[in-house]
Amino acid sequence: MNIMLGNHSIVWLSEYREFLNAFVQDGIDFNLCFILGTNFDEVNQHYGERGYRFSLLEAGHIMQNMNLVASSLNLGIAPIGGFIDDAANERIPLINFKTIYLVPVGEQMK
Asked: Where is each Nitroreductase domain found (predicted)?
């Protein structure tokens, strides 16, 4: 399944297990993992030196909204900013894509 909206997209990449080697933490149980990232080179061409900062701010705004939606749907969500960069980025079939967040989503813990 691919959904394209301008330069933004939601793309089915693979089974979630293929991203487990990017996690630093053990025991994360999830059904779906969103990968939030950007192409810093492209953003910097448009916004100059502020591009890096804008990318991180926007990722934070998106993550906040994802947390609110997951909470309203009674889903568990765990935004992770500390991961093995190369293990996450090598799975993305986009040139110069850099992962900012790994976002595992699953059942809410009881």
From this structure: 21-106
Hey, how many other C-beta atoms are within 10 angstroms of the C-beta on 19? 20
Beta strand 32-38 pairing with 98-107: antiparallel
Q: Is residue 20 exposed (0-12), middle (13-18) or buried (19+ Cβ within 10 Å)?
A: middle
What are the structural domains of the chain? 2-107 (3.40.109.10)
Q: Are 87 and 33 in contact (CB under 8 A)?
A: no
Q: N- to C-terminal Cα distance for the chain?
A: 31
Give the span between the Cα atoms of 108 and 110, in whole angstroms. Answer: 6
Alpha helices (H) along 16-72? 40-47, 50-72
Q: Does the pLDDT of residue 4 top 60, yes or no?
A: no
Measured distance CA(16)–CA(33) in Å, rounded: 7
User: Bridge partners of 105?
Assistant: 32, 77
Which residue matches tokens 């500390």?
A: 82
Instruction: Give tens-digit pLDDT for 29-50.
Output: 888 888 899 999 989 999 999 9
